[in-house]
Amino acid sequence: PLDEAEVERPRLGRLGPVRVRVPAKINLHLRVGDLRADGYHELNTVYHAVSLYDELTARPGDTLALTMEGEGAGHLPLDESNLVVRAARLLAEHTGRPPHARLHLRKNIPIAGGLAGGSADAAAALVACDALWNTGLSRDRLADLAADIGSDVPFLVLGGTALGTGRGERVSPVLAPHHTWHWVLAFAEEGLSTPAVYAELDHRRANGIADTVAGEPDTLLAALRQRDPEILAATLVNDLQGPAIALRPELMRTLMAPDEVEALGGIVSGSGPTCVFLAADARHAAEIVAVLERSGLCRTACAVTGPVPGARVV
Ligand code: C5P
């Protein structure tokens, strides 16, 4: 995916709207290391982009303006604190352009769901404004800017399946034979705060409730190469799952809900509360969705596939 041939080149003199689609992410492997002096934790993670998308449209304008519809509309502030606005301003500063654009966000990725929805929207803003303003940055330069906005943003520019290290911002693609995995996402009624989940992990470690485990995802990477969902399911791991369940005990029941249809490997996504289940195929995924929706243990469930590309002009 880092191949220059794949970099989308903006058309010169573009005046019409630019539409960018950006996926949600799950973490197939998330080992959290020590708390650093800067307040972030050292991570060893495997990111995986899935086919649940937000869409950002950028049009020429006289100022920078953001509107939105869908998930979280009316709750998410649209001011300077919004990651989309911050991303657009950062790109403008770095390229010497006036930060002028009319941006419209259509959200499907739930807010505070452990799916990096806000980071996805920031990645979309970088790619959309790069095309609108003809700044023509490479994906690598966009990824550098992305890291200043949030730890997950560089991955959402890249997409696919990738290793993440540092605080998650250093990403490199995982080389695995092409294979489509089928997943089910179960959304909770209410989000969880990422800093609160990390703080709960620190608290559990300080009190000997949780340990720090060495982070290398070797068994997971081997499982990805084998293209067998049962083998992959057995290697999924997330250090934030324990803390997320401590803060939201009912997640335990959600994770067990699809047992009757033998979902493979239920796991909390990132800092939660979204739960992810691996399915054998598309039909199995549909069965898992049906069981979850009947259970009343989640707001809604949906089947997705991965890996999919990162933020792209469509
Ligand atoms: O990087 P981002 O702003 O998305 O991170 C949100 C919060 O998640 C941070 O403020 C921090 O509390 C926590 N975090 C962390 N270690 C990481 C990534 C995020 O503690 N590697």
From TrEMBL:
The active site is at K25, D152. Its EC number is 2.7.1.148. Residues 82-160 form the GHMP kinase N-terminal domain. It comes from the Bacteria. GO terms for biological process: isopentenyl diphosphate biosynthetic process, methylerythritol 4-phosphate pathway; terpenoid biosynthetic process. Pathway: Isoprenoid biosynthesis; isopentenyl diphosphate biosynthesis via DXP pathway; isopentenyl diphosphate from 1-deoxy-D-xylulose 5-phosphate: step 3/6. The keyword Cell membrane does not apply. InterPro entries: GHMP_kinase_C_dom, GHMP_kinase_C_sf, GHMP_kinase_N_dom, IspE, Ribosomal_Su5_D2-typ_SF, Ribsml_uS5_D2-typ_fold_subgr. It catalyses: 4-CDP-2-C-methyl-D-erythritol + ATP = 4-CDP-2-C-methyl-D-erythritol 2-phosphate + ADP + H(+). Gene3D superfamilies: 3.30.230.10, GHMP kinase, C-terminal domain (3.30.70.890). Residues 221-293 form the GHMP kinase C-terminal domain. The keyword Kinase applies. ATP binds at P110, I111, A112, G113, G114, L115, A116, G117, G118, S119, A120. GO terms for molecular function: 4-(cytidine 5'-diphospho)-2-C-methyl-D-erythritol kinase activity; ATP binding. Keywords: ATP-binding, Isoprene biosynthesis, Kinase, Nucleotide-binding, Transferase. Belongs to the GHMP kinase family. IspE subfamily. HAMAP family: IspE (MF_00061). Catalyzes the phosphorylation of the position 2 hydroxy group of 4-diphosphocytidyl-2C-methyl-D-erythritol. This is 4-diphosphocytidyl-2-C-methyl-D-erythritol kinase. It comes from Virgisporangium ochraceum.
